[in-house]
Amino acid sequence: MDLLIEQIKTHVPLSPADEKIIRNLFHKKKIRKDEHLLEAGQICRHLTFIEEGLVRYYLFTNGEEQTNYFNKEGEWVCDYPSFIPKTPATAYIQALEPTTAWMISYDDLQTFYKEVKYGERFGRLGIEQVFNNIIRQVISLYTDKPEVRYEKFIKAYFDIAQRIPQYYIASYVGVKPQSLSRIRKRISSQF
Fold it and tell me: Pfam families this protein is in (predicted)?
């Protein structure tokens, strides 16, 4: 849980009393490789912090999986459009490798916001970051060519790209795996 506490401290100060509250509100969970944290149709019931591991978000569009996002150690995982209004999710969240996570329910998150001195500020900063990431991704999807999206993927996920299967990277970029191979060849030939 120390990584979780340290990650929160990068955004807001925590007193020893705040840390004790956090330790009581979050619960540890081990997730197997390929196990889903969430499937479409389910309600997202937890905000999850990844201590160790890697997950991907994906949707089914036109009968095919479309990978939308990846999260790794030190990052938060949640389907906010399901979690906040408690409605069925349209996304899937799947562990790409064995993952250790800390989870907090919606009700316990409300307690976090009330009882941790800067809890609400932490929540606002987190949502602002999620909002900015989503807007950037949507703009890129509509304005960038696949080669540019791949370059952005490499910049955003340089530290985990080797841990992600190529077909998921191709799905994220919005191309078939063969097209991704051609894009990678063109980019590597420029150097």
Answer: cNMP_binding (PF00027)
